[in-house]
Write the structure tokens for this entry.
Amino acid sequence: MEVNPMLWNNVTPEVRAHLVRLSRVVAGHGPMVVACSGGVDSGLLAYVAHRVLGGRMACVIGVSASLADGEEAGAVAFLETHRIPFARINTRELDDARYRANGPQRCYFCKRELFARIESAPESKRFPVLAYGENADDRLDHRPGARAAEERGVVAPLAEVGFTKELVRRAARELGLSLWDKPASPCLASRIPYHSEVTPEKLRQVDEAETALKRRGFVVCRVRHHGDTARVEVPLEDHARLREHRTWLDVQAEIRAAGFAHVEIVEDGFRSGRLNEALRPSP
């Protein structure tokens, strides 16, 4: 399938070159289903795939208790805005004892369930290729889900053409996609330390606690679940605002209402992937 490079004329040359390469990779894979989480990576991939393939693609949104509040609605709003066809499926990763055990391979069992459910959806009967939004930077971190993708032949066009996270955001911004600066929102289970069981109750607690922070404008935040203690992470530049007397009292009250007995601020601030640090060998 030939790709018209004129699709991407209104962006800077570097971004255009990557988008042209991405378009050719997408076209080469052919009709596809895109697993859409509502984040910037899968959002950019869905947008490009729709521009290139038109009616020969669709998106699928996986919905479960591990999806943070508002993520499904955000994904739907984005896809509807750009008239990208989509469907929802319910995933049941919590039925898998290996997922609930929350070992370092938890994400493998989650992605395996997601991909299997998508493959059984009607969309996959029409569009034989399944793609997801892994980028080039993801391959540098602990990502067991990538093994599940490899086993099932799921393709990662962004990573194939070297789209880093920074370049994904630049491309999304230049294309005018509203989610270009959307903070990463990995599944809620990523807030629970490894080997501490994942349960619907813990996921609910984390979701309610983070929702309370976001209502107060702390868009980038994590609430780590340490038993009866909630450890709150926000960027260091937001610490002064979080520590304001009235704000902190209200935040503590709402997080305790979610089921935590104690609430702490993590002194060194927000750090993505903090719980994965325990898996890295000591220097």
